[in-house]
Amino acid sequence: MKKILSIFGLMIVVLSVATNPAWADFETAENAYLGEDFERAFREWEPLAHQGNPEAQNMLGFMYRWGQGVKQDFSKAQEWYKRAADQGNATAQNNLGLVFRYGLGVPKDYQQAFQWFLRAAEQGNAAGQNHLGLMYFKGEGVAQDYVQSYKWAMLAAEQGMDPAIQALGMLEEVLTPAQIKEAKALARAWRPKGPEAVL
Prior knowledge:
CATH class of the largest domain: Mainly Alpha
Mean pLDDT: 90
Structural class: mainly alpha
Oligomer: single chain
CATH topology of the largest domain: Serine Threonine Protein Phosphatase 5, Tetratricopeptide repeat
Number of domains: 2
């Protein structure tokens, strides 16, 4: 399980960090994380996070969430996710949505979860799109809407998200052919907003 979480943790790191001048430090932390030396990874990422690096901030949030290299602390996870999310980091926005959806150290708040998933999804984040589709399907934080659910699941599925691929099959059992056609048209017309402008 730890190995799966380790690999997942690295998958959620945004690739744009390669253009950051602190890339060498980030890469050192990444290599330590891959080697499951979580304490070292945390030590390497922490100063970058304090300097404002959103990818490092997101990873600190992830490590606090799962108790990797540090004691599990949902409050600190939320704090670091929020710092990165406020800088427009879509992965952190999705992670913050999970904090509110599942009530990790905070009361469950589906409306906040929905808003964070939406911000991630609008930037093209597949996990955010998948979670947004789920929120529409269940009517959590938003009015239930199977057409919107299908649209977002389709967008996530096109990026290879297995849960979204499975969701499409379930949705096709409850939607009419006309609704599926509408949802597919919405998905085809959708364009990502691109990175958020940070003030």
